[in-house]
Amino acid sequence: MRKISKITLLEMGVLMALLSTCKKATVQSAWNDGSIIIDAVVKDWGSRLVWNEKSQVNLGVTNDAENLYLCLVTSDPDIHRQILINGFIVGIDQKGSKSHHFGIKFPLGISDRGNQPLMPTDDQRRQKPFEPGQPGQKGRENDFLAKFNEQQTEFILLGPGDKQKTLVPLENDLGLEVKIGFDRQQLIYELKLPFSVISQYLQIDQISNNKPLTVSFKTEKVEMPSGRPGDMMGTPGGMGRPEGGMGGPGGRMGVPDGRISNPGGDEHSEKTFSYQVAVTLAVKP
């Protein structure tokens, strides 16, 4: 049997990397004429939303001279749970940023909240667990969103270093806007990112229209403690806030058991969602 040389292995590695690059979805951004508003309502996106069968999401991308606008929509209940339990990270990169990073995490995950689920009321504890986006639950969706907006008042900026994190209020003077909502069994995520903030974090002079942006969407894998989520009492939260900061002990409010079944795997490990696209920015007509 012929031995595979080191050179052949290297060539195979290069080929696999090229194939992986080829599989990355590409999206052409549309020019935003001012019609896009960050309100977790999809009607202003219209035909700009593009379906990706593999990832089970609709994605819309627009830009103007100063900002990038993103809208991700999915009716997949597994992705709903992953976003609401693990938190959701959007990362932006462009060639030339070298080892610098930029990302935003919203909503914050259960680990950021000190392993505490969104806190239900006593009445909600006695009801059948609410599944976001399921039929016939519009009233409970509104209740959930009210509680969600009450507790999720901050996001985390990631970068420019690997482990750097900055906690920022939703109401901020950076120009960043992010919103989550539900409509007809769909989770809607909208985000507005100023190019000035992106370039500052990536430490490049400015975002270039001639180079595609790499935009990634992902949820983190979270190892849940054993036992029922209702037993998870205030473990100290991250980002320097005592006793978890957000949420309270016990129960679930719109977030089912933190443990999502993983066939053949550890029941305490959640599934993760990951989707990456190469975005070509639009030029003003």
Please tell me about this protein's structure:
- The protein has a single domain (25-280), classed as Immunoglobulin-like, CATH 2.60.40.
- The chain is 19% helix and 26% strand.
- The chain is built from five helices and 13 strands.
- It has helices at residues 6-22, 77-86, 122-125, 138-151, 195-202; strands at residues 25-28, 30-31, 50-52, 57-63, 67-74, 89-94, 102-105, 154-158, 165-169, 177-183, 186-194, 213-218, 274-280.
- The strands form two sheets. Strands 1-13-12-6-7-8-9 form a seven-stranded mixed beta sheet.
- Strand 10 (177-183) and strand 11 form a beta hairpin.
- The longest helix has 17 residues, at 6-22.
Q: What class do helices, strands and sheet pairing give?
A: alpha+beta
Number of helices: 5
Low-confidence residue ranges = 1-22, 119-130, 226-269
What is the end-to-end distance? 61 Å
Strand order, biggest sheet?
Answer: 1-13-12-6-7-8-9
Order of helices and strands: HEEEEEHEEHHEEEEHEE
Question: Major beta sheet, specifics?
Answer: 7 strands, mixed
Based on CA inertia axes, which overall geometry fits?
globular
* CATH fold-type name: Immunoglobulin-like
Question: Residue-averaged pLDDT, rounded?
Answer: 75
Strand percentage lies at 25-35%
In total, the number of domains comes to 1
CATH class descriptor: Mainly Beta
Q: What is the annotated CATH architecture?
A: Sandwich
Task: Give the number of DSSP strands.
Answer: 13
Percent of residues in helical segments? 10-25%
Computed CA radius of gyration, to the nearest angstrom: 20 Å
